[in-house]
Amino acid sequence: MASVALTNLDPASRAAARGWSDLTIRNLFIIPTLVFLIVFNIFPLIYSLGYSFTNFAANRSEPWQFVGLQNYRELLSDDHIWSNFVITAKYVIVSVAGQMIVGFGLALLLNRSFPMKGLITTLLLLPMMMSAAVVGLFWQLLYSPSWGPINYVFGLGDFAWLSNPDSALYAVAITDIWMWSPFVMLLSLAGLSAVPQHLYEAAAIDRAGWWYTFTRITLPLVSPILLIALIFRTMEAFKTFDIAYTMTTQPTAELIAIRLYKQAFQQWDTGKSCALAYIVLIMVLAITNLYVKYLNKVKER
Amino acid sequence: MAAVRTSSEVAFNRIAIAAVLIATLIFLAPIYWIASTAFKPKELAVSVPPTVLFEPEVTPFVRLFTKRVQMQKPVDPQVYDAAPWWEKRIYDGGERVLKVGKDVQLSQYPDRFMNSLIVAVISTVLAVGMGTFTAYGFSRFKIAGEADLLFFILSTRMLPPVVVAIPMFLMYRMVGLNDSHIGLIILYVAFNLSFSVWLMKGFMDEIPKEYEEAALVDGYTRMQAFFKIVLPEAATGIAATAVFCFITAWNEYAFALIMTNRRAQTAPPFIPSQIGSGLPDWTTIAAGTFLFLLPVAIFTFLLRNHLLRGVTFGAIRK
C-alpha cells in the first residue's frame, strides 16, 4: 500500500523545498500511520480469520484442529445466534427511529433565535459525550422498580424495567435514545441552518402552508444530512455493547456484540467467536461503505 | 426575517421555545439525578418517594476514596472527638476508616481514575501527533489512491471493539501486554488515529496553501514551514481533535473490560463492577460517576463550536 504512494509529486513544490524533499516528508508523515493501522487493526483481523477455521479455545492448552467451515455452518444454523440478530435488529430499529424523531424534532424547535440558545444547545449535547458504560450504570438507578424516579414520575408502581424480559430491551433503547438524540439534533441543526432563507420567504409570499413548506422545502434540503445521521446511528446501534451490557443481564436484551463477548471471553469458544466476529464485521463494513459514500456526497455539495 | 410576522407565528415561536426548555429539563434530569445522588445522605438515595431537595453532604466522596469496615460497637467518644471532620462522617454512618498505622487506606478508585488519566492522555498525544502529520500529508501532497487510503483509515474506526479485541487479547497474552497501560494505549491510539487523521485533514484543508508557499519562497524548508506556519495555524484544530480523542479514550469500555482487570484497569469497567451483590451503595457509586463525568462535561463546553465537525469526522462544519 505504501509503495503506491511513492510516485507523482508536484515538481514545483519539490523545487521549492530545501532540506528533505517533499517526497521524503510525505512518506515520513503518512507511512507510520498506515503501518500502525495495518499492524494493530488489519493484522489481528487476519490472525482471527485463521482461528475462525479452527476449534481453538484460548483457556485450554490442548492443540487446536482445523475444522474448515464448520464454525460458520454451526453459527448460521444456530437458532440462538439468529435470535441475537433479531434482538439486535429490533433494538436498532427502535432506538434509531426514536433518535431520528426526537433529534429532528428538537432541531426543528431549536431552529429559531432566542436568548441563551447556544447554552441550551450545548446542555442538550451533554448526554452523547458521556461514557455509555457509566450511563448504563446510572440509568439502572433511574429505572429502579422500588425507589427509581422514573416509576415515581410516571406512576408505574414497581414496574421492573430491566428485569422484565419484555421490557429490558426497550428500556435500553430508551436510554440510547436519550443519549444519542442530541447527535441527530446536532446534524439536523446544521442541515436546517443551511436551508437558504429566501426559499422560506418565497413560500411565505406564495402563502404556502406550514406542511407544504416543510415537506417541499425543509425536508428535501435536510434529507442528505439526515441520511448520514441515520446510517451512522444504525452502524453504531448495531455494534452496541457497553450500554446494554452494564444495564441488564436479560437474555431478551442480549445484542449480538454481547453474545460475541460472552462466547469469546466467558465460554472461551475462541475459534467459533472469531467466525462470529467475521460475520458481524462484514455487516458493519457494508454499512460503513454506505456511510462514507454519503459523507463524500454531502461534502462535495 | 423580512416578512412581517403574524400573531400566530409569534405564538408558535413562543410555544416552540417553551417546548425546547421543557425538553432540556427532561434531558438534563438524569444528569441532575446522578449528580445530586452523589451529595445525598445514604438513606435519601433510595427513599420513596424520591428526594429532590435535601441538604447536600460530601460524605459519599469520603466513602469513595477510603476503605471502610462496619463497626461492631459504637465508637469511643474520645476517639470520635479527636477525629477529623471527614472521619466523623464515616463514624456517623456506623463504619470506620481502615488504616495502616496512621495512614488512611485508600480505595481502588483513585488508582483506577489515574489509570484512566494516564491511558487517555498518552494515547491522545500519540494519536493527535501522528494524525496531524498524516493529515498534512494527505492535505498537501498528491497521493495515488488517496480516496481509497482515506477510506481504509476511516474503516478502522468503524470496527466493532469486541471484534478487534479477540485477536488482540490473544496476541497481548503472548507478548505479556495484557493488563498493561501500554497495551491499552496502543489500542486507543489505533482506535483514535483514523478519527484524528480525518478531523485534522478538514482543519488542514482550510489553511491556505499560499501561507507555506510564501514561506518556501522566503527560504524556509518544507519542515520549517510545517512547524512554524502550519502548526500554529492549526492550533485550534489540534486542540479540538485532542479533546475529542481524550473523551473517546476516557469513556472507552469494551477494550478496557477485556484487556485489563487489576493493574491497568480504567474507571469505566471499574465503576460498574462496584455494584456487587446485595444492596448497592448508590451514593458512593454516584460520587465516583460524578467525578468521572465532570471532566467530560467541562470539555463539552470548551468544544461546543467544534462538536459538529467532531461527530462527522470533519466532513460537515458550520
UniProtKB/TrEMBL annotation, chain A:
Keyword Transmembrane: yes
Recorded topology in the membrane: Multi-pass membrane protein
Residue ranges of the TM segments: 28-47, 91-110, 122-142, 168-189, 210-232, 275-292
One GO-annotated biological process of the protein: transmembrane transport
Subcellular localization(s) per the UniProt record: Cell membrane
Occurrences of domain ABC transmembrane type-1 (ranges): 85-291
Major localisation: membrane
InterPro entries: MetI-like (IPR000515), MetI-like_sf (IPR035906)
Keyword entries, A-Z: Cell membrane, Membrane, Transmembrane, Transmembrane helix, Transport
SUPFAM superfamilies: MalF N-terminal region-like, MetI-like
Any GO CC annotation of this UniProt entry: plasma membrane
Domain of life: Bacteria
Sequence similarity: Belongs to the binding-protein-dependent transport system permease family.
Protein name (record): Sugar ABC transporter permease
Lineage: Bacteria, Pseudomonadati, Pseudomonadota, Alphaproteobacteria, Hyphomicrobiales
